[in-house]
Predict the 3D structure of the following.
Amino acid sequence: MNLSHDDGPREAASVDFGHLVHRRPSAVARPRSAIEVAEVVRAAAADGIPVAARGRGHSGYGQAQTDGIVLDLSALAEVHEVRDDRVVVDAGTGWRAVLDAAWRHGSAPPVLTDYLGLSVGGTLSAGGIGGTSFRYGLQTDTVTELEVVTGDGVVRTCGPGDELFAAVLGGLGQCGIITRATLRLTGVPERVRRHEIDHDTVVSAAAEQLRFVEDGRYDFVQGQVRYGESGRRIFLETATYYTPPAAPRDDGEDLPFPEFQHRLDAAEALLTQTGAWFHPHPWWNCFLPASTATEFLESLVGQLRADDLGPAGCVLFYPVFTARVHTPLVRLPPEPVAYLVALLRFPPDDTAVAERQVADNVRLYREARDLGGLTYPIGAIPFTASDWRHHFGARWPRLRTWKEHYDPAHILTPGPGIFTAPGSGTPRTTDD
Ligand SMILES: Cc1cc2nc3c(=O)[nH]c(=O)nc-3n(C[C@H](O)[C@H](O)[C@H](O)COP(=O)(O)OP(=O)(O)OC[C@H]3O[C@@H](n4cnc5c(N)ncnc54)[C@H](O)[C@@H]3O)c2cc1C
């Protein structure tokens, strides 16, 4: 397997969606098979060189970066097999391609992220949440088999009940690099009836949202706070999936199912054109327990000004039933319902503003944590070693044991800074 030391690929691998952290790898590999991934990992482990997989690079804070070797998985992106109830895909495949292949077969993944330009391996290493998660859990809960290259450079296959399966799903790349996944599919509706329901306060919006997910009247439920020219707007976004001649009785925007799933494509095109897609994005994501989520949301929305989000930004919030999430390393508050709260910030291209917002993210994380919140670790909240120990809580000893077992040289995925200093192979033992 050839490693590229050229400036172009190394520069590309030192940038992510967050545009906040830039680490140049010493080399980039572009494997086309699990065997090629294993070759690189084995050689790197022998020399103690850190390795990070890069799916689509939509991390917020260098999670897929390293000063060692980046494995660019963009060429490991084949859809191998589609059946009514499952699809087998390489880990570098984008969710757009997964949906397209499944749709042609009359099926769809039960949970899709709002934006489909993410890789399967990238979302499975974090969780993968969407507006149907209240019903189906996270994307990690829809996986039935994985092929993984562990930190010793061995290709292994695992499934539900296997330790490696639990160590890798939602495992932030610490114990293995996913090379292939079998994902559950469901039948699909032809059409979607989409609604936006305005509220005066986030408290009433969150309360109605909870009623909606409890009575199951909608198939998709989210909530947003946005700041536009006419001021602040708080609304729920809901959708009913259906196939004619059946039809929902209520009014709303009516669109084909794939068009609904591709709903962020136009925004991406616009923000790419204006350049805002390439500005810093100090995003913040946490799960709050239902008992404190509205208190947190109310305080958050009370503090926020339009500039904190930018015209393209929003606060996203929606509930999930924690019992539907079966992925041990995805950390959720221990209550029956948890709310995802996300600040999707699109500030101007200004380093000082971005740095201020990252610092504000840490403050907000501490506030959320005091209220029983846990981060969804995809955004830009710099974590200390003790933050990680707190994050994994009772699961920390298990993760540490798995790390020793599957990645004894501690080379895999240093970006989040869980076992080594962020991005490097230096052990992280102190509370730096
Ligand atoms: C515009 C936008 C919208 C988003 N919407 C949602 C959403 O609706 N729901 C949601 O849950 N998330 C959402 N996210 C967050 C996103 O799911 C995560 O950041 C995800 O990790 C990005 O996937 P990626 O392929 O770009 O991963 P990368 O940034 O390339 O990698 C992310 C992390 O996963 C590791 N990794 C990548 N591939 C593998 C692999 N094959 N095996 C093991 N580890 C691997 C990397 O090393 C890194 O640590 C969104 C992000 C953006 C920018």
